[in-house]
Amino acid sequence: MTRIGNSDLDVFPLALGGNVFGWTADRDASFEILDAFVAGGGNFIDTADSYSSWVPGNHGGESEEIIGQWLASRKPSNVVIATKVSQHPDFQGLSANNVRSAAEASLKRLGVDHIDLYYAHFDDPSVLLGETVNAFANLVSDGLVRHVGVSNYSAARIHEWLGFAHRASAALPVAIQPHYNLVHRDPESAIVPLAQEYDISLVPYYALASGFLTGKYRSADTAGDSPRAQGAARYATPQGLRIIDTLEEIGKDHKASIATTALAWLRERPAVVAPIASASRSAQVHDLLASAIVELTADEVHRLDEVSQPDPV
Question: What is the pTM (predicted TM-score) of this model?
Answer without folding.
Answer: 0.95
